[in-house]
């Protein structure tokens, strides 16, 4: 559709290869010619349509003739608008006499199908990238963003060369129409009537959708046949996912992230079968290629089974946690701080680095990162790096919110006071921590172990002894006791 053709798409990922350059250029030339011709409402542009597209316009003709209101509602918005235009402008007899290609030519000549005209002040869209598959090509209108590809049309190779699949743009154009309706604040029926009036040059007399919803001919047999020739609108997305797969295989980080996520989650089984192991492998490749989204998701996925958090797993996770943290991902910053505190994943234990990353995590919005910093400075086991004064300064904000804190956070406050020799306060807060933890939801094994550690610290405070962390957090997590 002329009005909607430049609207954004979902995801795509064309892959470049030297031997495919000629084919890619051929595809781009087909698109450029189509864009130029259709922008001048030149019906010769129909010659560039794939056979499937010509057939598609035959479906639109039949829908204009026979589709019931229920069938119309199934048709994507961009095609439904064309059906309304055909019903508004053509008689049943005229439509019945038209071959599918003639319908396409009519729509182009009227300016209802094609690329934005040059008079609109917009440059004609060009393909920035093309992915060539077996007899199929998928184009992009713009360079990918950090998280999304900018899909364009797709093409098929026929005996007479590459041809444009007009119907490949229908899903995106329809999505754009639906978004415009939602953002307009108008009733969808009213907005469509206004749009039709403008496209038909009907001025202040827009056609009534209540009338256009009725078929030009009431023919039950033809309505049944319409169901049997219904377009496969999903094919466009299957082509796009095929292109993403191709580029993922060629080492593109964003494509590896997209396919890896879908494999791990199994959220799009129509396009990508769930395969968690293969998905994790792709996410690792994407992260290694610098994709911070993949790094963040991968770190979370590899942490999903605490029983697997041995040294080998932690070494595998660390590069991705670091990559995500360095890209500004808040949770990863705090987690990297824990790696430094524990000396995990091959790192040398470093409380200063730990607290620095925890502070950055707090700045990025992680509420519990303040607790982590206080614990690090108060209980740091690295000689010469413990700093009770910093712990005491940071803990005051937590003390002011004591009634809202968890048992674990009250435990941290107690450790900070003990580190500064205030054992009366330490004992008071530790007793509160133990009482609070007892009422919190927690796995029984973890609760028992945590209470044991808390009571041991309380006994130490009563003897005038502060606390230095003496356990491996990741080992406790792995054992289910944290």
Automatic annotation (TrEMBL):
<keyword id="KW-0732">Signal</keyword>
<dbReference type="InterPro" id="IPR011990">
    <property type="entry name" value="TPR-like_helical_dom_sf"/>
</dbReference>
<dbReference type="InterPro" id="IPR006597">
    <property type="entry name" value="Sel1-like"/>
</dbReference>
<protein>
    <recommendedName>
        <fullName>Sel1 repeat-containing protein</fullName>
    </recommendedName>
</protein>
<feature type="signal peptide">
    <location>
        <begin position="1"/>
        <end position="17"/>
    </location>
</feature>
């Amino acid at each position: 559709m002329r009005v909607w053709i430049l609207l954004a798409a979902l995801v795509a990922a064309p892959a470049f290869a030297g031997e495919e350059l000629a084919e890619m250029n051929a595809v781009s030339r087909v698109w450029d010619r189509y864009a130029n011709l259709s922008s001048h409402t030149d019906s010769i542009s129909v010659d560039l349509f794939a056979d499937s597209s010509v057939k598609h316009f035959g479906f639109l003709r039949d829908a204009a003739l026979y589709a019931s209101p229920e069938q119309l509602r199934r048709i994507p918005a961009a095609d439904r608008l064309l059906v309304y235009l055909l019903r508004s402008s053509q008689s049943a007899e005229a439509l019945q006499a038209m071959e599918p290609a003639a319908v396409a030519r009519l729509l182009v000549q009227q300016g209802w199908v094609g690329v934005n005209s040059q008079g609109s002040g917009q440059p004609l869209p060009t393909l920035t990238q093309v992915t060539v598959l077996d007899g199929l090509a998928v184009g992009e209108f713009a360079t990918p963003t950090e998280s999304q590809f900018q899909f364009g049309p797709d093409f098929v190779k026929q005996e007479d060369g590459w041809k444009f699949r007009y119907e490949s743009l229908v899903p995106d154009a329809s999505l754009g129409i639906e978004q415009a309706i939602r953002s307009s604040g108008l009733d969808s029926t009213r907005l469509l009537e206004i749009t039709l009036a403008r496209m038909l040059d009907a001025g202040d007399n827009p056609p009534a959708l209540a009338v256009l919803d009725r078929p030009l001919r009431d023919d039950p047999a033809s309505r049944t046949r319409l169901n049997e020739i219904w377009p496969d609108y999903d094919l466009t997305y299957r082509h796009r996912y095929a292109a993403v797969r191709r580029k993922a295989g060629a080492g593109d980080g964003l494509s590896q992230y997209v396919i890896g996520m879908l494999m791990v989650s199994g959220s799009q089984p129509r396009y990508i079968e769930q395969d968690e192991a293969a998905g994790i492998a792709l996410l690792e490749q994407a992260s290694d290629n610098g994709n911070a989204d993949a790094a963040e998701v991968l770190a979370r996925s590899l942490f999903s089974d605490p029983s697997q958090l041995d040294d080998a797993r932690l070494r595998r996770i660390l590069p991705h946690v670091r990559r995500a943290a360095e890209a500004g991902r808040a949770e990863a910053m705090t987690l990297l701080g824990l790696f430094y505190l524990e000396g995990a994943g091959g790192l040398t234990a470093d409380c200063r680095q730990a607290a620095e990353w925890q502070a950055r995590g707090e700045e990025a919005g992680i509420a519990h990162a303040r607790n982590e910093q206080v614990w690090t400075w108060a209980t740091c086991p690295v000689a010469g790096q413990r700093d009770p004064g910093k712990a005491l300064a940071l803990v005051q904000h937590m003390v002011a919110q004591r009634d809202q804190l968890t048992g674990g956070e009250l435990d941290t406050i107690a450790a900070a006071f003990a580190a500064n020799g205030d054992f009366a306060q330490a004992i008071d807060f530790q007793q509160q921590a133990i009482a609070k933890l007892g009422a919190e939801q927690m796995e029984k094994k973890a609760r028992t172990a945590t209470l044991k550690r808390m009571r041991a610290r309380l006994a130490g405070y009563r003897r005038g002894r502060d606390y230095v962390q003496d356990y491996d957090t990741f080992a406790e997590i792995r054992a289910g006791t944290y």
